[in-house]
Specification:
By secondary structure, this protein is α+β, with helices and mostly antiparallel strands. It is built from ten helices and 25 strands. Helix 5 runs parallel beside helix 6. It is globular and about 70 Å long.
């Protein structure tokens, strides 16, 4: 994503409220794309030429439902293969805003083989809307998606019981599904899940409250999305300061904003995104570099493209100047507060995304923050059962399995338990030959420093 795009979105978010990221997930034909299209349509976020194109295609297909005969799923199913098959394959990102908040949404695919795309869409989301077909109830893929959200510790889980119109707006049907959903969420450790009866095709309880569900007194889906706090608002800013270094900045080209010529000649800063916590000029920090003892210094300056700042908090992207000169490079970490131990061995829970089964002895690359190091899977110890939500013994993980493994890396990493810090406890497992992402994971516990 370009700096210009980020600046535009930041400015627009400031004008309309906070920027909120959410994703949709669900089983095949639950109506995810239609729901997203309904949100865009009813919140007036569709341009006239887009509506005209959707209207033409809807007419060609003989579509008779939806908003004025529009097939709203066409607004998000952008790939030719998706339009031809009527399914979602890739993660479709859309941006829109209401008077209260700006949104980035990701419409994730429903097929089991595309669970990896759901992980992609949900990994950065403040909330995930899981759709359940009112006629089918909670399916295995619903449980799989809830398991992924539990794995990723998604801040807010909203379950939309869609197609409520096709069951005659029956309260009993909704309440039975609601009980199943809340039971499954509780079994996975998901707290505060919300359940909303909706019809994406007709528009019930999406943006406007429906008169056909008088027994439902909760908020509409959009009302929920407009009022839920972001991940940064709930936890990230209160966590210890963590700053993975992405690159080192040295004087090149134009003078940096806010610096005179003499200061610019000696300029050295470390750029990246604040993963958690906050920092101010003058604060004490620790620098962690693989193979070296932790070193302490203070923050001499915090720079942005618009000039220096007195302080910065997650998830801001900034450049930090330090009072002392250290040999720091990409993959090192600048932090404040308690110094986490750097581990060469630790336990992780993975969502395996490769067709090739994972076994002990598999050699991989482990990406943690901005650091990437060689590693090996020392053991596969368990697999999550999606029916009982219990972890049973296993020695392999197949495609879309969620399991527990032991990892050993060549260079110590300052990993922390994901339950305590999402960003410091998240990692990717990458194929060393082709660079493909093999798994998304979280750190369960440390082992050997």
């Amino acid at each position: 994503m370009s700096t210009t795009t980020l600046e535009y979105r930041a400015a627009d978010a400031a004008a309309t409220g906070t920027l909120f990221r959410f994703a949709t997930a669900g089983s095949v034909d639950d109506g995810k794309s239609t729901l997203v299209g309904r949100l865009l349509h009813d919140s007036k976020a569709i341009l006239a030429d887009q509506l005209e194109a959707v209207a033409r295609t809807s007419t060609e297909r003989g579509f008779g439902g939806g908003a004025g005969g529009l097939d709203l799923a066409l607004l998000t199913d952008g790939l030719r293969a998706e339009r031809e098959q009527g399914i979602t394959i890739d993660v479709a990102y859309r941006y829109f805003a209401t008077d209260r908040r700006s949104f980035i949404l990701a419409d994730c695919p429903g097929h089991v083989q595309y669970t990896r795309n759901t992980v992609t869409g949900a990994s950065t989301a403040d909330a995930v809307v899981v759709l359940v077909d009112a006629r089918k109830g909670v399916l295995e893929q619903t449980r799989r998606h809830l398991s992924v959200l539990s794995l990723l510790r998604t801040a807010h889980v909203v379950v939309a019981v869609n197609k409520i119109d096709l069951v005659g707006y029956a309260r009993q049907v909704f309440e039975e599904i609601e009980a199943d959903v809340l039971g499954a969420a509780a079994g996975l450790g998901i707290d505060g899940a919300r359940v909303v009866p909706v019809s994406a095709l007709v528009g019930d309880n999406i943006v406007l409250r429906s008169d056909l569900t008088p027994w439902y007194t909760g908020p509409t889906l959009l009302e929920l999305l407009e009022t839920l706090p972001t991940q940064e608002e709930t936890t990230d800013a209160d966590l210890p300061f963590r700053f993975p270094v992405q690159t080192v900045l040295r004087p090149q080209g134009a003078l940096a904003p806010g610096l005179d010529a003499d200061a610019f000649r000696d300029y050295r800063a470390y750029a990246g995104q604040v993963a958690s916590g906050s920092i101010s000029v003058g604060d004490d920090v620790t620098v962690l570099t693989a193979g070296q003892e932790p070193r302490t210094t203070t923050i001499a300056g915090i720079d942005t493209a618009d000039g220096p700042l007195p302080a910065a908090a997650a998830p801001a992207s900034v450049a930090l100047r330090l009072a002392d000169e250290f040999d720091i490079s990409r993959g090192d970490t600048i932090l404040a507060g308690p110094v986490p131990a750097a581990h060469r061995e630790f336990t992780a829970r993975l969502c395996w995304l490769s067709d090739t089964p994972l076994r002990a002895g598999t050699r991989v690359l482990v990406k943690h923050g901005t650091a990437t190091t060689r590693g090996i899977v020392t053991a596969v110890t368990g697999r999550l059962d999606l029916d009982s939500f219990a972890t049973g013994p296993a020695d392999t993980l197949g495609l879309n399995d969620i399991g527990t493994v032991g990892l050993k890396v060549s260079a110590p990493l300052p990993v922390e338990a994901y339950a305590a810090n999402r960003r410091a406890g998240a990692l990717l497992v990458i194929g060393p030959q082709d660079g493909n992402t093999l798994a998304a994971g979280l750190v369960v516990g440390g082992g050997t420093p």
